[in-house]
Design brief:
about 0% strand, about 150 residues, Helix Hairpins
């Protein structure tokens, strides 16, 4: 397996912006439609570039990759280290459940008052529909009487 840092031609302590810049420039050069050389090589190289970029842009995947390949970043003493809180936030970003529509309905109901809750309820609409339907039927039945 290739070293993703060498493949993207960046240093191991590169920032996410540098990683993205390197990927975009290399993907532009070696895109199979633009590359003047061997098309098969360009397709394989672009696929490996994409794999490297997807791995290195995610902080957790990048940390796993660095650990599994024994890559020492050798950070300078001036670089800020990631705190435990940032790592937990990155984990939450990946493993959170999608918010259901029930959550949004309940949150909107909490903001509105009593009348807002009544007008947004399904029961209100059902009652109004039945009342209007009955009024229409009564109008059809007794409409000629009041003329």
């Amino acid at each position: 397996m290739e070293n993703f840092y060498e493949l993207l031609r960046i240093k191991p302590n590169a920032t996410p912006e540098e990683i993205k810049k390197a990927f975009v420039s290399l993907a532009y050069i070696y895109h199979p439609d633009r590359y003047s050389g061997d098309k098969e090589f360009a397709e394989k190289y672009t696929a490996s570039l994409t794999e490297a970029y997807c791995t290195l842009r995610d902080p957790i995947k990048r940390m796993d990759y660095d650990i599994s390949h024994n890559i020492n970043k050798n950070p300078s003493k001036f670089e800020r280290k990631h705190t435990k809180k940032e790592k937990v936030m990155a984990n939450e970003k990946i493993y959170t459940k999608p918010i259901s529509s029930k959550y949004f309905r309940n949150s909107k109901r909490k903001k509105s008052g009593v009348f807002g809750r009544i007008f947004k309820s399904k029961l209100f609409y059902c009652i109004m529909f039945v009342l209007l339907l009955e009024m229409g039927i009564l109008f059809l039945i007794f409409g000629g009487v009041f003329d």
